[in-house]
Amino acid sequence: MSMTKLFSPGPVMVKDNVRHALLHYDICHRSPEFEEMFQDTQAKILKLFRADESYYSLVVSGSGTASNETVLSSLFKGDEAILLVHNGVFGERLLELIDKYKIPLIDADFPWATLPDLNVIERKLADNPLIKVVAVVYHETSTGMINPIPEIGKLCKKYGKILYVDCVSAAAGEDIDVVRDNIDICTSVGGKCLGAFPGSAYICAKKEILESLTADQCKNVYLSLYKHYQSAVTAHQTPNTPNVNLFWPLNVALTNIVEDETLEGRIARYKACATIIREGLAKLGCRFLLQDHLSNTVTSVFLPAGVDAPTFLAEMAKRGYTFYIGKGDYGKQNMIQVANMGEIYEQDCYNMLEVFETVVNKLKK
């Protein structure tokens, strides 16, 4: 069995009981047993986002992008517009979806690794009455930056707009409270901070938004938010055959947080691991992309002078450690990303840093 440690921002290493859940005996998705597990999963997703009774949750078979496409292909009618706040690769992924579905766009485009300017956002809200939705990525994984979601939420409340947040790399890793932060709809996936597998995405949304949907306004057949909601609320089902084998691990991973480690405990563990990693990398002469607004789970660093990123990653992989190379031009500048999502604990971080130092010293010679 491979002993590779995934210090990469998804897929992640999972707890043994999550992996064993893949071996659950076969069931039909049109059965009471599935329906009971589906409802239990929905309830735990709501707890993950600290949602109250005004919210409802859904599960979509697919990656995090599938949940994002479900939302963006379903919310708009006529000339209703979207204000997109973006400052990295995954904000641009939302832009790609917006363009594909020809949603009228008001663009709040900021340089990568730059915190969005709230004054710019407010001016665009004030000047564009056709805006229905404000969209933003919570944790912009391409840089490791946490965007100012509570402040954007206050602006959305002030101007009466729907706030849609991509929480794909944030759910179970950051302090998300949809009620406190005025988040109306958000998305995520199992194979990130939650500690499940890729392919089991989920949505948490205000019931009033879901109840206002019509079949005609949804532009995608399989990823229709209307169909998903109607199937769930009327029959505790999904509209099409779901990836049943991934529902069980998703449910177990949620249970591990809700009933065992606790959400607060999970976030605290991630914070502690990120601190160890950052202190260790600083001692090794790595330069950080960000100085503040860092996430609890992704650290973007430039390797010391003379150390080639692809060569370094290959050497670390030989020793059982996987990282990401930086996105876009960052990779050309020998930036890598070290993540601590999933089943990574403090001692794992110390062990990784020892190997990291060995490889850096070898390549610097």
From TrEMBL:
Molecular function in Gene Ontology: transaminase activity
Cofactor section: pyridoxal 5'-phosphate
Domain Aminotransferase class V, residue spans: 22-284
Keywords from the named record: Aminotransferase, Pyridoxal phosphate, Transferase
Name listed for the protein in its UniProt record: Alanine--glyoxylate aminotransferase family protein
